[in-house]
Amino acid sequence: MAAGHPPPIDSERLTGSSAGEGVSVSALEALEAWCTPLQLACRLEAEAGFGDLQGRRDRFSGFIDTSLAAPPVGLEPAEKQQLAALAAAFGGYGEVSLASRQALVRQLRQALHELRCRRREVLPVAPPRLRLGPPAAAERATSGAAVRLTAQTPLAEVAGIGPKTATRLAALGLLVVRDLVHHYPRDYLDYAHLVRIAALEPGRTATIVATVRRCHAFGSPRNPNLAILELQLQDVTGRLKVTRFFAGRRFSSPGWLKSQQRLYPVGATVAVSGLVKESPYGPGFADPLLEVLEAPGAPVRSEQIGRFVPVYALTEGLTGETLARAIAAVLPSATRWPDPLPEPLRLELGLVGRGEALQGLHRPADREQLQRCRRRLVFDEFLLLQLALGQRRERLRRSPAPPLLLPLGGEDLVSRFLALLPFPLTGAQNRVLAEIRADMERPQPMARLVQGDVGSGKTVVALAALLGAIQAGHQGALMAPTEVLAAQHFHKLAGWLPQLNVSIELLTGSTPARRRRQLLQDLANGQVNLLVGTHALLEDPVQFDRLGLVVVDEQHRFGVRQRNRLLAKGLQPHLLTMTATPIPRTLALSIHGDLDISQIDELPPGRTPIRTRLLRGSERPSAWDLVRQEVAKGQRAYVVLPLVEESEKLDLRSAVEVHRHLDEEVFPTLSVGLLHGRMTGEEKQRAISAFQEGRSEVLVSTTVVEVGVDVPEASVMVIEHAERFGLAQLHQLRGRVGRGAAASHCLLLHEGDNAMARQRLELLARSGDGFEIAEMDLRLRGPGQVLGTRQSGLPDLALASLSDDGAVLEEARLAAQRILAADPGLERHPHLRGALEAQRRRSVEAAQLN
Known about the structure:
By secondary structure, the chain is an alpha/beta fold. The chain has a 7-stranded parallel beta sheet, with helices on both faces. A 6-stranded parallel beta sheet has the order 16-21-20-17-19-18, with helices on both faces.
């Protein structure tokens, strides 16, 4: 073809060769494949002067008419109608004027362009980029890095901290460099979340990079001591107004206001970090952090903008900035301290170095680094915990203990006792009792924890073990956390043991002095076989003749040192502890690593299911109606409250006030008793005896009845302010009913509209599984109250969570077992040994301070 002439239209090519390939990737690609030949044909027709260009097979108008008659699928009805009208117009393209042809081609091109624009996917704009320069504090710390600080360097001697700040840090218990490095952030502000203006979400922290369109600084017309800075910012996705407030007369001067406007000239690039809030004009920032960048790609110098910002626990007179500077002053030295973890083990477990972990926890670059560094430090906490438990267990195993061998053949005390019971032991009880007896026959002291749900029969198993010790010629001790529970155990056992010619005594703080002297004398000369008591058993005058077995009930209420004081009263007696606060077995093995674990996971037959219901405070009358109905059947009812007397700070009903109200107004024809912890032992016993014997039909009590009070006729438990109790404690309280043949009820009265509190109570209402309830309680309340770790003699966990970090805990437990198996004294792990000894010293010092 000669130069200057347009090429002929290839109608085959224009009808879409992609169809010949038989592939249509997406609706958008199909539309593009249909539109492109039409647009090309229109361009060629315009270049040829609108003469209805001839192609190989068809003219321009015929090709357009044919193509418009077969549009791609997925078009809207209005779009199809528009294309059909254009096709009809192109049918007479050859007979109309030049101007009309030009108009038709223009209309087609415009229609095709609009069609493609409506269908084209809008790709999201990428988030802004922000270069982070080294913060000023890090530069200052690096400049003084030549000074090597040890873990025990007093903070007052650290350059950059000084005596004044050190005094304020001491109020948080931060005395030396190690304390400060391990003062971990309690939360983080995620200013590393970089977004465009259009992607801002109210309620979330974020950072944007934008251009200044307008800056206005002015004094508040209502407050002469308040200045306001308003910035109009813009990026490729939208516009935003940013407002900052400055309180103080000096900020209201015209000179200062002018200087602020000069800081933010139009066209300057600024980085903004803060909490996004909703406003009448859409999402925006109020009082954010601002920094003008030297150039669009220049690094930001702020220590907070665009970064993960740690949030620390503070005290009066200590600001977050001051604490951050203090940590920055010691962190470079801390990251060079020796890593206590052996390098092969660290690499095997995929853990970062300890120095990197400390740096990353206080100054994380992103969330992924924060998680990696936190995992390493959590592992360290759990590893030291497991090493301490493992060494404690090994020391116990090396101690000699008297083997308590039962006579072969003939009837022993245990068999005679089991014959007295009106029911056979469950399979779980028999299994646990066999484990206990096997332990007691060894020359090493038993250390076993028996955990079982409320009503699973732990006391019967413990008594059988005590009788085994007595049969072997030794004495037994049963220690309970409260006088109520100790007295309950005593009265229950006193009904059985005299039939077996076994002497039993009760020792509590309420035991009269004359009776106490005689009891102690009988105990020391061996005339008392079994002593039941409270903390009074720990007192120095209490001496046994041959103490062979110690049983501790509700062990999580006693500290390790308290248990050890009782163990020291015998020639290394065997130890059996019990708890009705069950936790998952893996967690129990890790937390109680110095104890063997037995579980009574089967309830005795005949236990009546307890119907649990949630009631609002306004539904209290229906609870009282149920109490009347049950009492009329000969049953009894508990009413439990969290307080003894009314508190001015808490709007809660007290036991004393509720007792008066029920006795005088609600149940005037019934006998209503009162029981609380401030009563003397004699008063408590009178109240319990009256309830047991039916002289009082309703017992108003605090949580002193949580354990121990066993009244088969009690069929109703009303718990006021149930939202104030932990789930495991509520489950324990609920276990006080359902001990007889009658149907039993637990009514949970709750106030307020807290959704989380109601969710917890609903779990209790639908579940009777103590393990499920305790696991949820552990997750919601933390380990301190549920597991008793605050009294366990174990170190506090500054970072680790027993409920959330179970996988790391298991890794640490296995690693500790491997280390101690190869090196029991940690002689080949000097840094681990040093960390463990330092932790023990801190634990002893804390105990002395408390």
